[in-house]
Amino acid sequence: MAAAEFRAFQDYVKGRAKAQAEFDGKPQAGLGPFVLIGADRDSALLERLALVAKSIEGAGLSSISHGALSSVATTPTSAVLICANAAAESKEIVQVGGTAVVYVRSSGEREAWACDISSHEFEALAGTDEQIAADFSRLVRVLRCPPAPCLGPGSYFVSLTYPDVSQAMCKGAEWTPPPWVKSGKGDRPLHDGLEVRADLLQSQDPAFVLSQLALVRRQSEGLPIIFTVRSRIQGGNFPNEEAPFWQLTMIGLRFGVEYVDVEAGWSREGRHTFLAMAKRTHPGLRVIGSFHEIQRPLSAVTDQELCSLFTECAYGPQGSVDIVKVVGRAESAQCSIRVNQCAVQMRPHLPDSVNCVIAICTTEAGRLSRALNVMLGPTPVAHPSLPGVAAPGQLSALEIEGIRQTLGLPLNPFRGPDRDIDEAAKRQTSTDKDFKPPERTV
Ligand SMILES: O=C1C[C@@](O)(C(=O)O)C[C@@H](O)[C@@H]1O
């Protein structure tokens, strides 16, 4: 990691430094120049991508210069600085706050020197110039532009459960979006976001995770990526240890995901430090503050405890959490109603930065909560073509709309009639899928 803030956070995670970053609510203020590094053989690619970065409205990049890494300190913050083959250079760049150093490469081996001195990484997957430019623009926007409108009520994001997403994506010249992205009619994307559950991937090796993210972004039809690392105690498959969680979450930032999920079960100090760093260096990033209260049934959680979970999810530097998500474990339909009511009650007391709330329950008894959540915030969903559901009781968007219809609730008022939810889901339901809960540790 090269940018000063990234290095400081890595040191913090390794226990070598105290939390120090403060976030002043003006994330743009700390941005430095935008640096592209890469091997000599990729210099034409670097030149092309510098032009792409410069053309992005709102990114504040008005010129391109060429030079050595050591010239970063004197490069204007409005410049894209191209440093081809910076291998032999000093690491002075680590001292320059707010500077994004993007390691650009065409497919192939990652070079250790470039990984070491970069804060971000862009692999240009095979494809047309337009496809590569579209992928790169997304990284630039997260790093330089204000965030896109936040996912909100009525929207659905699919929780991907592939151990390897290449199972669902063709790697050939003609990239075909999978059915959880594009409807049979092919007019508009079916969902509003794609959640990459890094803990469910077959490997958490940085190179593998980065390549999975690159595939998803290429196939996403512009849908934002939500990057999640869920530990076992939180209903996922990752160890219940905080430092490895931050390290893997940093891989999501390194790639340039649009949303990151931060579980409120981790230490306040860790969350505060991470959020301060992440929001300062990624003005386009959105944060979902989550809590999974699933080790005990909701009947064992008092109203006061349940309400305070919403507040805890919003904890962080001012303005840093965009969405609050509380997940409980239901034993009856009553639990769904309770979690929903609690969300409605707490909503006005959350910080202004919180755009919306997600309040759902796991288990089959909790399905009602998913149908009710449609009015509160984005709803995580399954899809029949995925290998399984991400949580017990998770439903597809079509199933959720079906429940609303059956119960006589207003059909999703945020989705126009032109928005086909899913043809494939009419043939098979997500409930046919097996869910193998990770082993319980408590
Ligand atoms: O937090 C959530 C909610 C979820 O656990 C569910 O119950 O649908 C599924 C997860 O993938 C997601 O990150």
UniProtKB/TrEMBL annotation:
Q: Is Lyase given among the entry's keywords?
A: yes
InterPro entries assigned to the protein according to its UniProt record, in alphabetical order: Aldolase_TIM, DHquinase_I, Type-I_3-dehydroquinase
Q: Which reaction does it catalyse?
A: 3-dehydroquinate = 3-dehydroshikimate + H2O
Q: Offer an example of a GO molecular function term for this protein.
A: 3-dehydroquinate dehydratase activity
Q: What is this protein called?
A: 3-dehydroquinate dehydratase
The record lists the organism as Polarella glacialis
Q: Which UniProt keywords apply?
A: Lyase, Schiff base
| EC category name | lyase
Repeat found in the keyword field: no
* Taxonomic lineage of the native organism: Eukaryota, Sar, Alveolata, Dinophyceae, Suessiales
* Gene Ontology terms: biological process: 3,4-dihydroxybenzoate biosynthetic process
Gene3D superfamilies for the chain: Aldolase class I
Q: Where is this region: Disordered?
A: 409-442
Enzyme Commission (EC) number: 4.2.1.10
> Basic and acidic residues compositional bias: what residue ranges?
416-442
